[in-house]
Design goal:
Blueprint: E1 11-16, E2 33-38, E3 41-45, E4 50-61, E5 64-75, E6 80-89, E7 98-108, E8 112-122, E9 125-135, E10 142-151, E11 155-165, E12 173-181, E13 186-194, E14 197-206, E15 208-220, E16 225-235, H1 239-242, H2 246-250, E17 253-263, E18 266-277, E19 287-299, E20 304-317, E21 320-337, E22 340-355, E23 358-372, E24 375-379, E25 382-402, E26 415-429, E27 432-445, E28 450-461, E29 465-474, E30 479-488, E31 495-504, E32 530-542, E33 545-554, E34 559-570, E35 576-585, E36 592-599
Antiparallel strand pairs: 1-2, 2-4, 3-4, 4-5, 5-6, 6-7, 7-8, 8-9, 10-11, 10-36, 11-12, 12-13, 13-14, 14-15, 15-16, 16-17, 17-18, 18-19, 19-20, 20-21, 21-22, 22-23, 23-25, 24-25, 25-26, 26-27, 27-28, 28-29, 29-30, 30-31, 31-32, 32-33, 33-34, 34-35, 35-36
Length: 602
Amino acid sequence: MGRAFAVLLGSACVALSRPARAESPAKPAPAEHRVEFRANEVQLETDELSLDLQGDVVIRSERFRLSGDRLSLRRSPRGVHVEGKGVLALCPCKDPPIAFGLRSADLAPPSDVLLASATLRVFGVPVLWLPYLWLRSPNRAGMLPPFIAYRGEEGLLLGTGFHLPLASRPGAALDFSAGAYLQGGARLEARWVQPGARVLLGFDQFQQSALDLRATAASSGESGAFAALRTDWLAGERGQVATSSIERVALPSDRLRVGVGRAGSAVLGFTLQADAPRSSALGDFGLTGPGLAFGLGGALGRRAHYAVLATTRGAHSPEGELFTARLAAELGASAELGPFLQSMRVRQRATYASVFEQQSSEVESESRATFALPLARRYGELLHTLAPYVEATLGVGSRVTTGNQEPLGPAPPGARWILASGLGSALGVPRAEAARVELVAGAAGDAQTAEFVAAARARSDTGLLRLGAEARALPSSRAGDLLLQSELGRHDFVRLRAHVEGVRGDLRRAIGIFADDFTLPMGARLDRSGWSTGARLAVPWGAGIESEIGSEFDVTHAAWLAAWGQVRYRHPCRCMSLSLGAMRRQGRRGLDVGVNLELIPL
């Protein structure tokens, strides 16, 4: 189509393109820029190639909706020029929460809009006037909405940012933002987002400095090649103060993991790892060096399986050199003896470490045999299973160390054993359990002593209510651990999440019960006694409004850790979200308050 308008009764669309030249018929014409409109009355001015629209006028261009009582359209060098008083919305809603009043606009391909005499309206109320405003498409470079926050220690923070998409990678963009503390100081951020990857790098300066790096990325190819990146880094004198997140501050160290490899019948990967104390000096990457991982596993017939995992790591730091090598292997088999089910599992782990001129070698092996009688009964569509069992575990560990210190933490126990009986019960439909409970009781000990051990775990998922619990206890040693997790509600309903967790005393004798991960040193997770609890409650109020409150509490030291609250609004057509949040945590003075406005493209 040459330079022309196509007009339909009741509704119409405008297709604008340059006429193709006769002398170059092989050159394709540029893509059309289509603008749809609706009006009660349409007048075509053929001399000026323009349209006069009157009465309930609605113009649509990509994700934008422009409305008014009387508007005119004509071709312009930028695309389509709209003249007249109107209102521009970022979504197709009739009454959008955020809109822009205007006296004229240019609709430029592919989806940019240039406004003259623009007035920002929030729920219909004018709040800001600008002589010109350029609304950019998400796939075009442009400014980000401004942000505002009040931080208890630093005071008011104001800033804005710049959005830079990458045409070579669909869905990828790089955002830069800069903010200033009115009391002196600044915060700079760079955010990279693309499908399968998110990276955030922040620098915070307020009397002291902090570097904040968070990244997760993963990709894989059809040939089995893969690459992955994960890091959480807080460095600088201000590292543990600048963030409002108590979860990030509680991590014991900064960590960087980069891996590439290939997965098929076996997995082979090369890694780069770095570990440093939290809030170490800028540029201090702690123990940094390469690593190698190899994994192999599979079935041996119908009733047996095997798994092997080998890892090595070398690292360098100003204090010295580190090298570790670990090999873990597992062999398991099961058999049916009439109505009984018998299973056997043998696991072996060997570790060698050289840390700052100290050397240590560990060897641990574990054998476990289980004899069970699985029973099942149907109640209509429900299936109930009951499985009493007897289980015996025998483990042997030893360590040889040269040097004045123990580089690998607590030494593994020598001979250890567990003899226990248990009962497992599950209720649900075939291949989909709704609830499971398991109770275990028995004795655990070594070559000299023995003591009673008890354990239990349960989980339930009814769709509306999800519960999980796990506990172990050695009463005579006054040792135990407990983990309780609960979640009530759905994403569109009131949601309550709560947890209680903690460890008391030395549980290494009972660690064999419910211990599924044999690749880590025994008791590696149980490095400190203590109990904590926390909860969060989210309540949707309708009309796109939702609130959330939460808190964390250290039961052992009777210390409050963190509390927060947030109110979020999301428009039904997802064109805009607005959130107001406040948080206070241990280690920061005052209350942190922030407002976040996001204009979401359709």
